[in-house]
Design goal:
Layout: H1 14-23, H2 25-45, E1 50-58, H3 65-84, H4 91-103, H5 105-114, H6 118-121, E2 126-127, E3 132-133, H7 140-151, E4 152-156, E5 163-169, H8 172-211, H9 215-237, E6 243-247, H10 262-289
Antiparallel strand pairs: 1-5, 1-6, 2-3, 4-5
């Protein structure tokens, strides 16, 4: 005959939970209210930040040299084109290079210096009345890192090819201005760089065409030079060279903040208060049920 020991089991039910919360309603309710109020104060005390977005489409190269001309002359002029600095990579390569330039530290540094943003990015260290830094001044490297990691965001939709540049900043007017200026200035810089490269390529091709005695090579060089002239003309005349703006950045409504998320902060405060209230209630109940010593 086996002895069996009946171990009392406590079944947890919704009715038991409701009864438990009702018995400790003052403790739990006070904690929820207190933490929710504290979270509300914190949410309204935090500096609001606004988001300005610019949606652009990276513009590919014309592809005139990379297409049929590149196929027919690739074998005979591939090395010559490389020496001349002619890009055979096509539209995708140009778009990738443009996007990399927009993200680059060098362009970010130049943008910060051009717009004198150091006192704006580190306003807590800048004495506007004295016109000098309080303590050790921040470095341009720190400004570039802060701007790239916390202020500017660049995302790419690989399905559509669209690129979204976002600026998150406490001044909604500055956020929209910076977002639009970044795209415009990157496009202008890439345009000037391309024009300089086309000019060098054309000068080089002129020299090579005049130096070679082979008529077939001369004709190929001049056809290539004609293509470079067309691309240089497009770079000078078309409105968008590297980035075509689909949706420019606009000034957000004062209530349309990116952060802080006030409802989320208040909700998290209430949930944390509930947990603290349950812990306090359980502790009090254990003390009440423990035998007096």
């Amino acid at each position: 005959m086996n002895d069996t020991t009946d171990v009392p089991r406590r079944d947890i039910s919704l009715l038991a939970i409701a009864s438990y919360l009702w018995r400790h309603r003052l403790t739990v309710g006070s904690c929820i209210l207190g933490f929710a109020v504290a979270a509300t104060v914190l949410a309204f005390a935090l500096t609001p930040k606004y988001r300005a977005e610019v949606v652009v489409s990276p513009v590919g190269s014309s592809g005139s040299f990379g297409g049929s001309l590149g196929g027919s002359l690739g074998g005979s002029l591939g090395g010559l084109a490389s020496l001349a600095g002619i890009n055979l990579g096509g539209a995708n390569r140009k778009a990738d290079e443009s996007l990399a330039y927009l993200r680059s530290r060098q362009f970010t540094r130049e943008f910060i210096e051009r717009h004198a943003l150091m006192p704006v990015l580190f306003a807590n260290k800048w004495d506007a009345q004295q016109g000098r830094w309080r303590g050790d001044p921040p470095t341009i490297g720190e400004a570039v890192a802060r701007f790239s990691e916390k202020i500017r965001q660049i995302s790419e939709d690989h399905r559509t090819g669209m690129v979204t540049l976002a600026i998150i900043w406490r001044d909604r007017f500055a956020a929209a201005q910076w977002a639009n200026a970044l795209v415009a200035e990157a496009d202008a810089a890439l345009r000037q760089r391309a024009i300089a490269e086309f000019t060098r390529s054309i000068d080089y091709l002129k020299q090579e065409g005049a130096a070679t005695p082979v008529v077939e090579v001369q004709e190929a060089v001049y056809r290539t030079m004609e293509t470079e002239l067309k691309d240089a003309m497009l770079a000078r005349t078309r409105d968008a060279y590297a980035f075509k703006v689909i949706d420019p950045g606009v000034v957000r409504d004062p209530k349309d903040t990116d952060s802080p998320n006030k409802p989320l902060i208040v909700s998290l405060g209430a949930v944390f208060g509930l947990l603290v209230g349950l812990l306090l209630a359980a502790r009090r109940q254990r003390r009440a049920e423990s035998p007096a010593r």
